[in-house]
Amino acid sequence: MTVKSGLLKLLEQHKGETLSGEALAAELSCTRAAVWKAVKSLREEGYHIEAGPNKGYMLRKDSNRLSEEGIRLYLNHPDVYLKLYKETGSTNQLAKEAAVSGQASHGSFVMARCQTAGRGRRGRSFFSPEDTGLYMSVILKPGNRTLQESLLLTTAAAASVYKAVKKVCGISLDIKWVNDLFYKGKKVCGILTEAITDFESGNIEYAVVGIGLNVCPPAEYPEELAEIAGALFPDEEAASGMDVNELAAEIVNTLLEEIERRTLSPEYVEHNMIPGRQILITDGQNQRTAEALKICPDGRLQIREEDGSVSVLSYGEVSVIVKPEEIVL
User: Fold this and answer.
1) Do 202 and 181 share a domain, yes or no?
2) pLDDT value of position 123
3) Residue range of the domain that includes 181
4) Three-state SS string across 25-65, please?
């Protein structure tokens, strides 16, 4: 562990408390000059560290910046493989590489402050501007699960985000089958699950669950997202009452608990915005309307087609058809 990472760990552990340079140097087995150098470097990275003559150093209580050291404080398994990048193309790609190489085990995850090639479902891009959201990919080795059961990994991830946001932020989200979460009518979270299977057994060797959660809005959304994308908080000041490190850790902690149940989460059903609504289904170039009836125990969506027949969806893009009387002016 470097002096800088060791210092950040101590400051995160004692956020809002002043620690003397002498005590920090002794704890880190380095000189006070080395402590000052590490403080300077952390400040340049955006950490709000206060200092005063004969007072020492303090990470401000309202400091809300992601760090590996801060996340580990809240993890149920703090020794897991965890990497936080300033910028990367796609966290899912890095997570898959770590899983294939054997570096990362079950429950490991990769995060980035910014993604330049964030990916959504069906080859879409995922807008991932710097320091406005959580962009993370969790590696799961669920054991003896077939590819047909992979849908439950996605529903578990959605339920985990719902529960974590509720616990840490006090905000209740709406879940949209199969992998999105909404707040106040706008999308704030998308989930992309990719699984690698054993050809002979058909079981999942490992899965990577990518989660993109908008915490605060960027300065400006791309034109195509301006009307549909939202965030948990209206600005950084409003978000200062929660800790992004705790939120990231809670999502992972809850996800690992959710997949152990091997059944559909009650929260996924209870807070799903799709059942009982008229929906538009997009499958490739084809579109059709239907009535969403219920979420099946295996995570599929039961629908009533236009001709009155009942069928189930395992995949596909759905959107709610808003009735005129539901429009609020």
Assistant:
1) yes
2) 56
3) 68-270
4) HHHHCCCHHHHHHHHHHHHHCCCCEEEECCCEEEECCCCCC
